[in-house]
Amino acid sequence: MTPLPSHPNPDANEFAGKRVLVTGGTKGIGEAIAARFRSGGATVITCARTAPGEVRSGELFIEADLSTASGVEIVATTVLSKFGGVDILVHNVGGSASPGGGFAALSDADWEFAFNWNFHSAVRLDRALIPSMLEQGHGAIIHISSIQRRLPLYEATLPYAAAKAALTNYSKGLSNEVGPKGIRVNTVSPGFIKTSAADGLIDRIAKDAGIDRESALQGLMQSLGGIPLGRPGQAEEVAELVAFLASNRAPSMHGGEYVIDGGTIRTV
């Protein structure tokens, strides 16, 4: 198993003066992304369906459900009125809430919610905030997709996987349109990342199967076909990739999908 990495101290001024919006930025990968931009000197705005226990200093939190059009409107209106727009937009909100049981267990409501949460939220917010980016002549947009868009798990997360596939495809088309106008668009597709939600899933698997936690973890990794690196990724690793793509260190990185999965996807 590859040892856990040590994360370098970022340049405290790398994102100074930048306005950054991270959706779903209070837990897991989103929380790590927000923290990474804050450590680089950015003004960070986050939004989620429920307010965190403590809003960090220098950070604006907007309580809104981005799976709804009205929730997107709340976020966009607040950001535009208070900040005049953003320089960096990271769409991280999303997840799976579908029941197990395969395709036959999925209702229209399950499919609609998955697409509203994982796909339409990004499309709607882009539509609301890109005009201000076009007006200022620059911007960076990063959509957080998933390797499930290429490696769908049909038992319980098929709607999520399909919505992420749509998000990745949409991102490519958007990049072709807005790239010539100064806005870079990229997609980051994580694999199995260690978060509090992932830890909870491992605990549930261990309890339901009557096995120890390590066996549950190994079983979960094997359900993905194994992770050649030998461990789940860390949220901070995803955050570092996002920060790099959004920074001036990556001026020609545009219209791409960047997979961070420890080698889970074995094909080129």
Can I get a quick summary?
The protein has 7 helices and 9 strands.
What is the fold's blueprint, element by element?
Elements: E1 19-23, H1 28-39, E2 43-48, E3 59-63, H2 69-83, E4 88-91, H3 108-136, E5 139-144, H4 158-178, E6 183-190, E7 193-194, H5 196-209, H6 213-223, E8 233-234, H7 235-246, E9 257-260
Parallel strand pairs: 1-2, 1-4, 2-3, 4-5, 5-6, 6-9, 7-8
Helix pairs in contact: 1-7, 2-3, 3-4, 5-6
Can you describe this structure?
- By secondary structure, the protein is α/β, with parallel strands linked by helices.
- The chain has one domain (19-193, 234-260): Rossmann fold (3-Layer(aba) Sandwich), CATH 3.40.50.720.
- 43% of the residues lie in helices and 16% in strands.
- It has helices at residues 28-39, 69-83, 108-136, 158-178, 196-209, 213-223, 235-246; strands at 19-23, 43-48, 59-63, 88-91, 139-144, 183-190, 193-194, 233-234, 257-260.
- Strand 5, helix 4 and strand 6 (183-190) form a beta-alpha-beta unit.
- The mean pLDDT is 92.
Task: List the defining traits of the structure above.
7-stranded parallel beta sheet; alpha/beta; 9 strands; 268 residues; 16% strand; Rossmann fold; globular; two-stranded parallel sheet
**The CATH top-level class label:** Alpha Beta
Please describe the biggest sheet, giving its number of strands, its sense, and whether it closes into a barrel: 7 strands, parallel
- Helical residues, percent: 40-55%
Structural class: alpha/beta
CATH architecture descriptor name: 3-Layer(aba) Sandwich
Number of helices: 7
CATH topology-level name: Rossmann fold
Spell out the CATH superfamily. NAD(P)-binding Rossmann-like Domain
